[in-house]
Amino acid sequence: MLDRIALEAREEQFLAPGAALSKNSRGRQKPLLPCPLRTEFQRDRDRIIHCKSFRRLKYKTQVYLPAMGDHFRTRLTHTLEVSQISRTIARSLALNEDLAEAIALGHDLGHTPFGHAGERSLNALLPMPFHHNEQSLRVVDLLERDGEGLNLTAEVRDGILCHTGKQEPFTLEGQIVRTADRIAYVNHDIDDSLRSGFLCPLDLPAEAMSVLGDAHGVRIDALVADMVYFYEQEGKIGLSPERYEALMELRQFLTDTVYLKEEILLEEVRSKHLIQSLYNYYQEHPELLPEHYQEEDLAIQIKDYIAGMTDIYALRCFIEYFVPKGFHFMNI
Known about the structure:
Elements: H1 4-14, H2 40-49, H3 52-56, H4 75-92, H5 97-106, H6 115-125, H7 132-147, H8 154-161, H9 172-196, H10 206-212, H11 216-234, H12 241-259, H13 262-284, H14 298-307, H15 311-322
Helix pairs in contact: 2-5, 4-5, 4-9, 4-11, 5-8, 5-9, 6-13, 7-8, 8-9, 9-11, 9-12, 10-12, 13-14, 13-15
């Protein structure tokens, strides 16, 4: 039987040097009896998948509002793509696939409604900076389970916090997720932009296409394989200089031609107005905030509540507070 003890022995036998072994985890913030069947990292993965914040990712915008079409990525499908890419790389390098999967599934739990527009909106309103990676850690530590948190391992918590920003994760698996996140969003934002008609294939940078390939799957395959070969040659997680430069060229191209496109910016203005209106309303009506968000700093309470909203719920709240009751018959 493959119980936890057998799985831990398997990790020790088959994983590469440098892999994070679940039995050697740095532990949790609160003691927890071991599961008889699952390793610590498998348990973290399951806790994330079954939490409410994970389910809400289905209704949070990635770049294009879901109302624009059924096939655009949401924050949930982005998360699943990051998980798939991370698992493939971790498996190929004989690193801990369960840890990489858990980090990937939890890395965006703190993202706001309306994508990065929501993040920028809260940044403009709050007396402190808003960073979605820090909010993701806050979700799993303090906000989930009505204030109890998910009590995840130190390795998963570190991977979530450090998937973006200046600080590198201390595990190789966390470092995989950090790069896989970038691989995923650059490529699927191109795919969604082509589908939307905002871009056509001839718009894409020719030099980057020649390095990575001119099809979505081809580019991802090239980048994943490059990460595997780069680790085998250099002994560290990352991309070769040529492919890293091509990926960054695509990222800059998206910034210049898609993320700042007039149609996207118009939606951002509307999203900012909605979030600002909700923020101001909760300042006047703090009694509407959930009980387990009741901290001394009202700005933090409001930030936690709004950041946890889906696009749909934020819109419903806006209608409830600001639209005359006679118009509430609309099915929103």
